Amino acid sequence: GWIASDGTRVAGLVLELEDGWKTYWRSPGASGFPPQFDFSTSKNVEDISIEWPAPNIFGSDEFATIGYEKSVVLPLLISPKVADQDIQISLSADIGICEDICIPTSFTLSQDIPAEANSRPSALMASLANGPWSLDDLGVKGLTCDLSADPNGFLVAISARTENLNPNTRIIVEYPSADVWVNNGLTSRKDATFQMQAEVFVDTTIALARDRFVINLLSDGVWAQHKGCD
Is residue 40 located within the same domain as residue 154? Predict the structure, then answer.
């Protein structure tokens, strides 16, 4: 990896899979396993974030899953506590992997990153470049997000118009909190308009904030993202 101009260390986590095997994106679909990565025992690390590359969609309808096949490089943006010292990454991970059936698997790893690290692997740079696009960049128009109360929680209804994504496009709503669970429904398409309704279940002590919702439009290898349910 390398050091960015703001002092952030850039590194990559490589997941290698056998032919025919897949693993999941951060929001894996109704039948998938959401990956869990714990970096809490790392040394000289203030914060680590994963910059997810655009995933693929496997299957259709309610059985579709979202993720990667064969191999994927997950870029890591690491903020060190002390800028000119080495970093030791310690990771404990729980992920799902699939061939004909899906199974949970766990692994650990430890890796030292020297303070003077300065290599730019092409696969890592490609993954960084394959992150989310803005709605404007993909020609997505007329995005609407309606949040309403429901006897069991809340409903979020999304509508977006674009001719630049294929018919298998999925709308995925996320909310970054362990106390909020989003059950995304099927995405429908009429002409160039995609629609989806999600159920949102909330711990009763949590107040939902509209600006924390993340709306994703996923097509195979292409990803548009919008933050906020305006």
Answer: no
Say what the pTM is. Answer: 0.91
Mean pLDDT of 37-45: 97
Chain centre distance of CA 144: 21
Q: What is the pLDDT of residues 125-177, one digit of tens each?
A: 999 999 999 999 989 999 999 999 988 899 999 999 988 888 888 999 999 99
**Which domain range does residue 50 map to?**
2-129
Q: What is the CATH number of the domain that holds 158?
A: 2.60.40
Residue with tokens 């899906």: 102
Helix locations, 56-150, DSSP H: 122-129
| Nearest Cα to Cα of residue 69 among 60, 80, 61, 59 | 59
Q: How many domains does the chain have?
A: 2
